[in-house]
Write a structure and sequence with these properties.
alpha/beta; Rossmann fold; 14 helices; 7 strands
Amino acid sequence: MARIICVANQKGGVGKTTTSVNLSSALAHKGRRVLLIDFDPQGNASSGLGLKKHEYQEANVYHVLIGEMSIRQVAQPTAIENLFVVPATQDLVGAELELVGAERREYRLKDAVREVAADYDYILIDCAPSLGLLTLNGLAAAHTFLVPLQCEYYALEGLSQLLTTAGLVKKNINPELRIEGILLTMFAASNNLSHQVVSEIQNHFGDKVFKAIIPRNVRLSEAPSHGQSILEYEPKSVGAQKYVELAEELDQKVMGLVNQMAPPPATAESANMTPHMEGPNA
């Protein structure tokens, strides 16, 4: 079954969509089968992977939420092998209003994702920069949530609000939800504040902070305008290298957990072994 990860932060401009696109791409390059759900009405994750709006105007995540289509019907292949996208449009804003009085409104995405969970290794959900019904659906559908955190002072306030919301979701909607990790983004090596934020977050959250730190990088900013992930646009850039490191770090952790949960392989000896019983009451 896929590891379902919600990429969330209600603060905009922290590298959330950049992370969703490039982490998905890096995992796909590793041979993992990946589905990226664009859950932001701006649709930047869709366009950032080269999808054109006219291609999915009548089949996107909005139609999944309102029950008209399934994820299999709207998922689009990308130029990257193993990577598929459920695109989004501005219609998604309307879905939030339409679902206000709907039954199981918080579980619409979860119910839809359940049908395709066995088809992928990872499902990433790129949430809108808010804590509304859409993000609530994302957190309800996910096993874990990943928080991109800009290396600036005010980013810490947004993190506190998100963790509070996630705690409420865990208590009331999705008891399995837990944090996948905090990803430090937009790190400027020449900026003392960036170093202070990194130090403070690492000291407070320990191993919940990814070792990979995403720097400010011109190539990362340019790639979306070409409809490409950084691994296609400039694979030798520092930004690309860091997202490859992040994908490796995440994959090692997830695969390690999968191996821990798997039963030990049967040996020929154990398969043929019969219990030795003694006495009539054995």
